[in-house]
Amino acid sequence: MAILSLKDVRKNFGKTEIIRGVNLDIERGEKHAIIGPNGAGKSTLFHLISGLYGVTHGTIQFKEHLIQNRTPYEISRLGLARSFQVTNIFPRMNVFENVRCALFWPHGYRYSFWHLLGRQTELNERTLQVLEQIGLQDKMHFPAGELAYAQQRALELGIAIASGAEVIMLDEPVAGMSHSEAENAVQLIRGITEGKTLIMVEHDMSIVFDVADRISVLVYGEIIACDKPENIRANPQVQEAYLGEVAVNA
Amino acid sequence: MLDVFIFATLNGLVTGLLLFMLASGLTLIFSMMGVLNFAHASFYMLGAYFAYSISLYFGFWTGLIFAPLIVGVLGAFVERYGLRRVHQAGHVAELVFTFGLAFLIEEAVQFFWGPGTKNYQQPELLDFPLFTLFGQEFPAYRGFMIGISITIFIGLYYLLTRSRIGIIIQAAITHPKTVANLGHNVPLIFMGVFGVGTALAGVAGVIAGPVLTTFPGMAVVLGSIVFVIVVIGGLGSLAGAFIASLLIGLLQSYAIASDVGVPDLLNLLGLEFARDHPLTDLWTMTLPQIAPILPFLLLVLVLIFRPTGLLGKREQ
Amino acid sequence: MAFLKKSTIWIAYLLALLVLPQFFNSILAISIYNQMAIAIVFALSYNMLLGQGGMLSFGHAVYFGLGGFLAVHTLIMIEFETVYFSIIFIPLVGGVIGLLAAIFIGSFSTHKAGTVFAMISLGIGELIAASSLIFVSFFGGEAGVSGDRTFGPPLFGVEFLQDVEIYYLAAGWVFIATVFMYLFTQTPAGRMANAVRDNPERAEFIGYSARRVRFISFCAAGFFAGIAGGLFALNYEFITEENLNAATSGRVLLMAYIGGLGYFIGPIVGAVILTLMNSLLSNYSELWMLYLGILFLLTVMFLPRGFAGFIMMHQVAWIRGKLHTLFIPYLLTGIPALILILSCVALLEMSHIEEEVLHYLGLELNPATLLTWVITIVIASASLFAIRLTLPRLRAAWEAANAIPDSEDG
Questions:
Q1: How many domains does the structure of chain B reveal?
Q2: Interchain CB contact of B104 with C (< 8 Å)
Q3: CATH code of the domain containing A34
Q4: CA proximity to B231, closest of C130, C121, C108, C104
Q5: By the 8 A CB rule, do B290 and B262 touch?
Q6: Complex ipTM, two decimals?
Q7: pTM for this model (two decimals)
Q8: Residue spans of alpha helices (H) in B79-174
Q9: Chain B residue with minimum CA distance to C108
C-alpha cells in the first residue's frame, strides 16, 4: 500500500484552478521527484500535502489517515516533515536551538513547561547528532539568521529531518547554491533520507535524475507523466511540455 | 422622542465625521507602511493647540489654515527622521516607536502649554443657532464641522482617484517596488502621505478643539477610539473606516441620549433584585453609563468573529 | 560543581536582594525597594509576552490590576475573618486571578500575534479599565479599594506593620518569581515561544500549534503579572482603577523595552532604572516624564535592544580582550555627550521654571538674563561639535575591537 496517496486533488484560488485533479501514489521508501515548468503548481501541491492550504476537492491519504484540510501541526505529528523553497528557519535562535525545537514533539515533550532542557540528555545528544549530519556542529551557538546562505539551507534540511519523519518533502533544496555547494547538499540529502520516503521538487535535472527512483511531471496543475527517470527522459510529451512549442495532443 | 432621535443623529454624525477625519489619515498611513500610527491622535491634539495659539493673535480662521500645515510638516519630519530609521527593525518596533511618540507629545504639550485646559473658542462668526427644531437649537458651528469634513473628503477622494499624483500614491501603496522602478521617488511619496495624513488629523484637532475642549488628555480620549475604528472597519480599508466611524459616532450618541438600562429590561421581564446584592452594579447599569465602553466591546467582538474587520482583506 | 557554578549568579541575586536594606534603610529607600520589587516581577512577566513570545501587548496591566484588586479584597476578607491564612500567600492569590483572567482572555486573543494581538490587548485593556469605573462595588470607583495587611495571623511574630518587613516578603517573592520565570525559558514550552516569535509558520511544521504555544506563554505572563499585582496590594494596601489602565500597561512596556527585550536580565535593569527615575528624578524636576519620553524614543531609535543589549554588544570585544581599547574613545565622546545632555536639560528647566533662579548642579542660573541662555547654548553647541569631532574615532575603535581576525578562530 502506498504511504501517501492523492486522489483527484484540486485547488482553486478564487476562480483560477491551480491544481486540476492530481492522482499520485508514493510508495514507502521511494525517492520521488516532482518536476515541471515554473507556475505548474509544484509548491502549491507541497502546501496542500503539508497542510498549509486546504484542498478544494479530493482526498490525500497519509498512511491510514486522511489528511486533506488538516492543520500543518497535525500532519507533522503523523510523521511528515518538509522543508521550504525560501529559507524558513528561526532566525533569532541559535543553530542548536533550531534543531532541538524540531525534536520536541517527536520526543514526546508536547507543551511541557516542567522539563528542564539542560537535563534532557537523550534529546541533546540527538540534536548534536543531527548537527553533525548536516555539518553545522561548529556553528551551533551562532544565531541562525547570521549563517551563510548554504548553511541556512543545510539547517533548513536539518529541521526537516530532525524529527525522524518517515516522509520527507524537500522544496527545491539546492536552489540558489553554487555547483560545489549543491553537490554537498545532494550528498547530505542522500545520507539523511537513507531508508526513508523522499518527495522532492527540484529544477536541477542532473540532481533529479541522480537522486530520484521515480519522477512525476506536473504541467498546468496536472500530472502528465509519472515514471522511472529513463522513461521520463525519453517521453515526447515531457519534452514538448518543457520545450513548450506545440500543443501536447497535436 | 423624535426630537431626541434627530439631535442624537446629528450629533452622532458630527462625531462620526470627525472620527473619520482621523481614521482616514490613519488608514492611508497603515496601507502604505503597514504600521498603525499610535501617535496619530497626538497630531490631532497638536492641531488643536497650534490653532489655539495662532487664534490668540490672528483669529480662528488663520489657525484653521496654518495649524494643519505645521502639523503636516511635523508629521513628515517624524516620518523622515524617526519612523524610517526604525522601519528596518520591523513592525513591532515601529508600533512601539509611535507609542513612545504619543507619550512624548503628550508630555511636550504639557511642557509648552501647561497641564490645564485651554480656552480655545469657536469663532464668533459661527456663534448662532443654525436652526431650531422642537424648541432645540442646533449650533451653526456643528453644521460647519459637518460641512468642512465633507468638503475635505470629497477633495481627498478626487485627489486620490482622479489626479496623477493620487494614482501614483495608490500604486505606491500596493506596489512600492514597481513604482520605484518606474522612476518615482517612493520614500518622498511615503513622507508626503504621512504628512498629509497627520495634517488631516491636525484639521480635525483645529475644528474639534473648541467643542471637545483643548487639554493634554484629548489625544488619549480620542486616540484609542480611532484605533478601534480602523480595526473594526478593516485595516487599510477607507470605506470600512468610513462606515465604522459613522457607526461608532452614532452608537455612542444614541447610547448617551437614551435613558434605558438594565432596570428597564428587568421591569419588562417582571424581575426584581435586591439593591444590596453584590452584583447590584450590574442590575442598575444604564446605557448612557456604558456608552464609553461600547466601541471597545465592538472591537473585541469584531476581532474575535471577523478578525479582518468589516471590509478588510489583510490580516496582518 | 557545575551546579554550584550555575547557581552562583542566583545566590548573588538573592544576597543582593537580602542585604540591600542594610545599606540604605531610610523610609524613602525602603519604599523605592518595594516599588522595584513589584516592577521587576511585572516587567519580567511582560517580557514573557513581548521579548520571548513576540506578542506586543498594550493591556498587560489588566492582569496586574485584577490580581491586585482580588488581593486587596482577600485582605479585607482576612480582616473580617471570612478566610484565615497568612498574608504571605496574598501574591499567590493575585497570581491565580491573573492566571484565570489570562486563560479566559488568552483563549481568543492569542490566535494571531502582531498588530491584531496588539489591538485586542488594547481593546480589552480599555474595556476593563472603563468597566472598573462602572462596577463600583468591586472596583471602588475612582477612589479604589483599600485593605489592611496587619490583620492576618503573624508569621513568627512578624505582623507586617512596617515596610521593611514587607520588603523581605517581597524580596522572597521576587526571587521565587524570577527563578521560575527563568526556568520557564529553559523548558520546551519556553523555547517554542521563541520559535513561534521568530517564525510561527515554521513552528506549525514541526508539530506545534502556534496559537497553543502563545496561549501558554500568555497564561504564564498573566500569572506572574498577578503576583506583581498581589505584591502591590500588600505594599500599598490599596489599589485603584489607575493600576489596570492603559497608563500602567504603557509603563511596563517602557520598562521592558528600555531595559532590553530578548535578554532575561533586561526587564530587571529597566525596572530598576525606571523606578529610580520615577522616585528620585521626580523630586528634582517636574519634567521627568518628558525626559522619560525622550529617553524611551532615543532607546527605540538607537538602542533597539535596550540597555542590556548595549552591554551585551561589548561581549565580542571583551572575549577578544580588547575592551580596554574602547575606554579612551568612550571617554572622549562620553564627556561632551554628558555635557550636551546636561545643558539641554538646563535649557528645558530654565524655560519651564517659574521662580527667579534655577538651582542646577550647584549653580544658580537666572533665566531672566539673556547671558545665561547664550552661555548655555554655546556650551551645548560646543559639546555637540566635540561629539562630531570624536565620534569617528570611537567608531574606528569599535570596529577595530570587533573586527574578525584573519585567522578565524570562531
A1: 1
A2: yes
A3: 3.40.50.300
A4: C121
A5: no
A6: 0.91
A7: 0.91
A8: 84-86, 91-113, 140-162, 164-174
A9: B304
